[in-house]
């Protein structure tokens, strides 16, 4: 009976995985087709003639390389700032005792209910006053930390045995040294999970870069793809090829960090 239930569970999971992968596989198929096969009926899933030159064409049709580099800079910068600031902010909320700690943590968590669209205008006004409009830093800085990232790392810190920190304190280590040398290395899985989630969020962000960036040479890949779709709206194979290229970095990051991802999420959930 147990074997049958496991087989059923795996079958359901495989079916769900195929349903989720279906649109992405069709996107890859479209990016490798010629124009005739895209509009053929019945639909052709596996192209008869693989058109790899679609990727070269879309790369040269717009400054795709520049958009790609801008997105990488913004994503890596956002990940670095988010991990550093959140790790610093979460540690005292988890380990240090000071008046109003619970109130501060509650206030931080309560910001999770505020949609990004609500704070776009105040953020843009702030970026303008700081002179960071139409700059990559202006895209990165407002989202260099988040309530979720602080919560995730705080919960991870709570799993670190206090005895290790007390031993370091007896040896004369400062609070910063304890955080850097003891607590932070022990929550690497949660940090890795935060890196993946932040990278995906930053890489796929469209609204904020669209508002802040004005010069085409500063466009991110998502904004550049949007402009490309407007100019190549009827050329579906090139649009599909551009979309596939935009997804590759996310897949690469996840593949390199997947062994830490699940354990990091579980650690951050307090389980």
Describe the protein in words.
α13 (221-231) runs antiparallel to α14. It is built from 14 helices and no strands. Helix content is 75%, strand content 0%. The protein has 271 residues and is an all-alpha fold. The protein has two domains: 1-51, no CATH class; 56-268, Orthogonal Bundle (MetI-like fold), CATH 1.10.3720.
What key phrases describe this protein's structure?
2 domains; 271 residues; 14 helices; 0% strand; mainly alpha; MetI-like fold; single chain
Please give a quick description of this structure.
This protein is mainly α and 271 residues long. It is built from 14 helices and no strands.
Order of helices and strands: HHHHHHHHHHHHHH
Q: What's the architecture of the largest domain, going by CATH?
A: Orthogonal Bundle
Radius of gyration: 23 Å
Mind telling me the CATH superfamily name of the largest domain?
MetI-like
CATH fold-level topology of the largest domain: MetI-like fold
Structurally, the number of domains stands at 2
Individual helix count = 14
Name of the CATH first level of the largest domain:
Mainly Alpha
In which range does the helix fraction lie?
Answer: over 70%
Q: How does the helix and strand content classify structurally?
A: mainly alpha
Strand content: under 5%
- Measure the end-to-end span: 29 Å
Overall pLDDT metric: 84
**Largest sheet at a glance?**
none
């Amino acid at each position: 009976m147990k074997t049958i239930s496991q087989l059923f569970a795996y079958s359901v999971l495989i079916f769900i995985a195929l349903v989720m992968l279906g649109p992405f596989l069709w996107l890859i198929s479209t990016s490798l087709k010629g124009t005739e096969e895209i509009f053929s009926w019945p639909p052709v899933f596996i192209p008869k003639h693989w058109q790899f030159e679609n990727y070269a064409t879309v790369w040269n049709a717009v400054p795709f390389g520049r958009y790609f580099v801008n997105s990488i800079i913004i994503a890596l910068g956002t990940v670095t700032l988010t991990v550093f600031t959140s790790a610093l902010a979460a540690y005292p909320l988890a380990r240090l005792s000071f008046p109003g700690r619970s109130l501060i943590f509650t206030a931080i968590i309560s910001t999770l209910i505020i949609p990004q669209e609500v704070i776009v205008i105040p953020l843009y006004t702030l970026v303008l006053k700081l002179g960071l409009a139409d700059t990559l830093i202006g895209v990165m800085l407002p989202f260099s930390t988040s309530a979720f990232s602080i919560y995730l790392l705080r919960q991870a810190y709570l799993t670190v045995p206090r005895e290790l920190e007390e031993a370091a304190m007896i040896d004369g280590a400062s609070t910063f040294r304890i955080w850097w040398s003891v607590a932070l290395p022990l929550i690497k899985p949660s940090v890795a999970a935060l890196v993946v989630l932040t990278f995906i969020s930053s890489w796929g962000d469209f609204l904020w870069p669209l508002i802040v960036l004005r010069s085409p040479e500063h466009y991110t890949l998502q904004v550049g793809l949007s402009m490309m779709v407007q100019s190549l709206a009827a050329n579906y194979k090139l649009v599909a090829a551009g979309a596939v290229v935009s997804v590759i970095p996310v897949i690469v990051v996840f593949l390199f960090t997947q062994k830490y991802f699940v354990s990091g999420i579980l650690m951050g959930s307090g389980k």
